[in-house]
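User:
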Amino acid sequence: MIRAFLAVELSEDVRAQIARVQQDLTSSLAREMPRAVRLSWVQPASIHLTIKFLGDIDEQGIEPLREALAAAVHAQRVLAVPLERLGAFPVLHAPRVLWVGAAERWERGDEAKRLAELHAAVEARCDSFGFAPDSRPLSPHLTLARIKAGAHEFGDTLASSKLLDRPLSLGALPVESVALIKSDLRPTGSIYTKLWDVRLNG
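Assistant: Predicted structure:
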């Protein structure tokens, strides 16, 4: 058995842009950050757009899953997710995750609908393999940091900084393929290995 998930990988350019944003945020927040706050910044090399978390899967099912997803994914056209704003989950006054993602206007547009269609196509194929369906719609965001301690204090600092109100311009995340990624949990963090990918049309 392996622990795995389906995701869109980032280009080296997007990774570089994210690293710059993380550095800028560290500098901007450092002077105001309460001592109780503990952040864990995600290494840019480990950041991806998760399409579906699969959990533990039998290695014999890897190739049949690829074959099933290949046709479904190829029926979808390539798209791009603009990285234009910072956000926090689940709520600003006590965030656990700091992320970068698309603006709200994009989420109401045609490209967002196509991303939802891709997610639905993947879900349908995974359902036929017995994977539990996701209870929430796909949220196109990339995790920059996790708040390990002092969530309320960090939320207050983030709110007073007005950083979430500032527009970003990191370009766009191309959605051109969906990869199966193996996750090995280590004491120092997860190690990710791509096993295969299937391409969208275009």
